[in-house]
Amino acid sequence: MKRQLILEDGSVLLGEGFGSEKETIGEVVFNTGMTGYQEILSDPSYCGQIVTLTYPLIGNYGINRDDFESITPAISGFIVKEVADFPSNWRNEISLSEYFKSKDIPGISGIDTRKLTRIIRKYGTLKGAICSADEDVQGVLERLRETTLRNDQVKQVSTKNAYPSPGRGKRVVLVDFGMKHGILRELNNRDCDVLVVPYNVTAEEILRLSPDGVMLSNGPGDPKDVTEGIEMIQGILGKVPLFGICLGHQLFALACGANTEKMKFGHRGSNHPVKDLVTGKVALTSQNHGYAVEDASIETTRLEVTHIALNDGSIEGLKHKDFPAFTVQYHPEASPGPEDANYLFDQFMSLIESEESGANKCQSVQI
């Protein structure tokens, strides 16, 4: 099945199709992870994107039931150098191509992914199409020019209804902007009584649930499009401990008066070094984001930068100077990637306990 990848700058790369045969259009990005393709393809943060994997052989350990980060993938397509037709792993259930076919997701192999990555690094993320090799290139380019990428990705991937994930510990409201299951897993591992709620939940609705803490999840797209989340954060800030990850980090910054900006090609991979400015320690982190908090915009807020990326100096962590709230741009739940930053979930639990302890002291003084 001959297919072609056409980019909006006019670049045409020929390859072999796998998975679905439909045409797809999306934002072409690249991920540098050497493993974890199953977690990547099921990460809701890739909604509307066609992902290029720089590692040359993908699918060699197949697809299993345990490594999904969502039930229904939101990814638009996959670009690889070589796809493994006969995976070998004791957990393997079906091949990558079979899975993509069952989910109607198109993929293309035989692409020079190093060349494609250099194009993206030079020009930034581009709109692209995976289509039949018989399609007229000029016709596809015209469709690309006419296509406006959707700005409701969070609405597409967020849960429509609230649901519980019961535990006997702290009650945490997890706001689903495109949540990876790894975040829920880490909260469950700490016996939290988790209530997962939609992206458009209001501050009043959250406070009525009497949470001990609120978690803001990752998610796709431009944070400025998620006005409901920004208003909600402003309504709960200072009233309950808060921890945000990735898109949750960006929304927190916007809610506190900072600004966000689109990056040239973003951070997507599983080995990004991040420095903790408090301890001086460096952690290798899993990242997936195309927007970042603007450094200069922090100066007029009550926010403090806690972490920076060592590769480019961009902001990777924030905390509020007055309220119990902190966020990180990277993924402490990993999946895929190193678990160096997993301690941040314990830090969130400690923040909740310290706030409860302080409240109890105030009550005893009043009595």
E-strand count: 19
CATH fold-level assignment of the largest domain: Rossmann fold
Just give the CATH class of the largest domain: Alpha Beta
Shape, per Cα inertia axes: globular
Subunit structure: Composed of two chains; the small (or glutamine) chain promotes the hydrolysis of glutamine to ammonia, which is used by the large (or ammonia) chain to synthesize carbamoyl phosphate. Tetramer of heterodimers (alpha,beta)4.
Catalytic activity: hydrogencarbonate + L-glutamine + 2 ATP + H2O = carbamoyl phosphate + L-glutamate + 2 ADP + phosphate + 2 H(+); L-glutamine + H2O = L-glutamate + NH4(+)
InterPro entries: Anth_synth/Amidotransfase, CarbamoylP_synth_ssu, CarbamoylP_synth_ssu_N, CarbP_synth_ssu_N_sf, Class_I_gatase-like, CPSase_GATase1, GATASE
Pfam families: CPSase_sm_chain (PF00988), GATase (PF00117)
Q: Care to describe what's here?
A:
With 367 residues, the protein is α/β, with parallel strands linked by helices. It has helices at 37-41, 96-102, 113-123, 137-146, 153-157, 181-189, 203-208, 227-236, 247-255, 343-366, and strands at residues 2-7, 12-19, 24-31, 49-53, 57-58, 77-79, 82-83, 106-109, 126-132, 163-165, 171-175, 193-197, 213-216, 242-245, 260-276, 282-293, 303-309, 315-320, 325-328. Strand 17 and strand 18 (315-320) form a beta hairpin. It is 26% helix and 31% strand. The model has no long low-confidence stretch (mean pLDDT 96). The chain has two domains: 2-149, Carbamoyl-phosphate synthase small subunit, N-terminal domain (Glucose Oxidase, domain 1), CATH 3.50.30; 154-361, Class I glutamine amidotransferase (GATase) domain (Rossmann fold). Keywords: Amino-acid biosynthesis, Arginine biosynthesis, ATP-binding, Glutamine amidotransferase, Ligase, Nucleotide-binding, Pyrimidine biosynthesis. Pathway: Amino-acid biosynthesis; L-arginine biosynthesis; carbamoyl phosphate from bicarbonate: step 1/1; Pyrimidine metabolism; UMP biosynthesis via de novo pathway; (S)-dihydroorotate from bicarbonate: step 1/3.
